Each structure stands twice: as structure tokens, then as C-alpha cells.
Amino acid sequence: MKNIIRILITLVVLGGLTAAVAWKLGDNKKKIEADGKLTQVRTVEIPVKVTTMSTQTIQGGFEINGTFQPYKQLAVMSEAQGRITQLNVKDGSFVSEGAVILAVDNDLLKNQLDLARINLKKAENDVTRLKNLLGDGGVTQQQVDDAENGIENIKANIRGLEKQISMTYVRAPISGTVSGKTVEKGAFLAPAMKIMDIIDIRRLKMAAYLTDDEVLQIKKGQRVELRTDVYPNKAFVGVVNLIDVKADNAQRFLVEVELANPSATPLKAGMDGVAEFNTGRSASILALPRECIVGSARDAKVFVVENGVAKLRPVQLGNIYGDFAAVLSGLKAGETVVSSGQINLEDNMKVKVEE
């Protein structure tokens, strides 16, 4: 009997504890839901500042992002076949135009050339003897002509062997620095095999792509100021040496600006930079304040306010003009864009515009 009473008491206590825990959890859930609803109420309208899209008049020129490229760059290809017996360079080596980079085994060709020269000397002696016999009627003119033709064939063979031997010596086609070497001494070289790149960065060129309106504002020989984040306080000066006559698939025109690579502040091919084109004339463009941009300029988005709702929209930007960026597509004049408060926004949130 006592055991039954103990069991009943234990069950009652456990049931009470279970009920208390369930009540507490339910109460906490109600508080969390209430706090969530309160938060939603507080954030129904996000305070933001806006600007209205309009056309801006830009004075004096424009900036274009570009990339520094080698003034000259060539891939060195092999013309001969054989084992590499001599390799005179390594990555980072500077070579002068015409210098021997490597040599391929050419012993067999040299032996063939020596034999051809011996045969040539013998053939020339034979022709001399035949010509002496020609007057005595011992030989015919045809025999003399055939012998002379044989000499010409040997000479042609010699020229071919000399050419093949010269091809076993790979020479630098331009002066520059060796990069991307793919062979080692003792390796087998095949025809049309890439050996290395030679890159000349003693001078550089910046490649930039301009719109049709921009390309009409510049001319060949024009001086351009160049900047790079690597040397933030240094301005480089280059000259426009190429303006492409045909646009690419993105309707942009390639413009190349050539400059000397200073030894005190050396630049490397592949570095990014900015070219400042001073045109001396004004241009009217649809401009977006840079503070409105969400993300990077290459993958730019903005929040456009429509009927009190902020809608995230991708835009395509062009050149940067100080605090403004040219808009190529995605926005039109008169639209309202969020300029401050984007950090609290998500797509399709309600906003309250502040003055």
C-alpha cells in the first residue's frame, strides 16, 4: 500500500513539473512573438534620404578605368625538332633582340652539311675537267650542262641545311623579360611548341574602352594623366597612340595610352589604373551620385522608391566624374533613388522619405 502511495505522489510531482515547464515555454513563445511583432511595427517604414535622377553637365573631361599592358609581348615558338642542348635564360631574365635563347642538337645536320660541301667541291672539279674535254670532243655539251645542274642542286641542298641548322638556335625576337618558360635543358622540343613569352615593359600602354560619345572627344597624340592605387600620390603622363576605328560587342572603342615605365615608381603589366581624359568641353549625361550605389561599380544596384516602397534594381554604370557616375541603363530621369539609409534596406521594404 505504501509503495502505491509513493508511486502516486511521484507521478503527481512529475505531472506538476511538466505542466510548469510547458507553461513557461508557452509564455516565452508569446513574449518572443510579441517582441517580433513590435519590431515589425517599429520597422514598417525605414527612414531614408533620396535624390531625384537628372541630367548633369560635366565639365572638362572624364575618367576611364583601364589596365596597364606590355608595350610588346611575343610568344616564342620552336621551328626545329630535337633535344635541347643549351638553355641560356630563365624566368625573369632580360634578353636582347637576336640573343640565342636555346640550342637544339644539330650534330647530324652539321655532318650532312660537311658532306654536301665536300660533294660540291668535287662536282666543281668535275665540271672543270669536263669543260677541258669539251673542246677535244671527248664529252658533249649536255654532259657539261648536267654536271653544272648537279652543282646547283648541291648548293640548294647546302642552303637548306644551313637554314635547318640556323633554326636549331632559337633567338629572341624582341628585347624584354622572359616569362612563362615551359622547357628545360635536355627536354625534347617539337615544331610549333611554345617555349616562353618575352615581355617588354620598359614602356607600357593602358587599354581603356570608351563610349561613342567619349571617343569623339579625344584625338591621337593627346596627353593623358594616369593614376593607380599602387602609387596614390603619383601621376603618370601618357599619350594616346591608338583609337580603334571599330567598336567591340559592348559598343565600346579601344583606346591605348602609351607611357614610359619609370624606374623610380615601376609599374607592372596587369595593374589597374585610371585614365583622366581632359577634353576641354562639357557633356550632358544622366548622372547618379556615387553614394547611391549598392555594391561595386561593376555590379551596381540602387534602391528606387516607388509608391513608398524601395525596390532594388541593377544598373549599368559608365564613367566616373568625381562624385557622380554616368548611367548607361537601368534608370531614367525623374526617378527617385535612395541616397542614404540603404544599409537598413531590403528589396520591397516600405520607406519614409526624410528631408
UniProtKB/TrEMBL annotation:
Question: In what residue span(s) does the YknX-like C-terminal permuted SH3-like domain sit?
Answer: 286-353
Enumerate the UniProt keywords alphabetically.
Coiled coil
- Looking at the record, the residues that make up the CusB-like beta-barrel domain are 212-277
The record, for InterPro entries, names: Beta-barrel_RND_2 (IPR058792), MdtA-like_BSH (IPR058625), RND_pump_MFP (IPR006143), YknX-like_C (IPR058637)
Q: Which domain of life is it from?
A: Bacteria
Gene Ontology terms, MF aspect: efflux transmembrane transporter activity
Task: Outline the extent of the Multidrug resistance protein MdtA-like barrel-sandwich hybrid domain.
Answer: 75-190
The UniProt entry's coiled-coil ranges are 106-164
What's an example GO cellular component term for this entry?
efflux pump complex
| Record family assignment | Belongs to the membrane fusion protein (MFP) (TC 8.A.1) family.
Q: Which NCBIfam families match?
A: RND_mfp
What is the protein name for this chain? Efflux transporter, RND family, MFP subunit
Annotated source species: Haliscomenobacter hydrossis (strain ATCC 27775 / DSM 1100 / LMG 10767 / O)
The upper taxonomy is:
Bacteria, Pseudomonadati, Bacteroidota, Saprospiria, Saprospirales
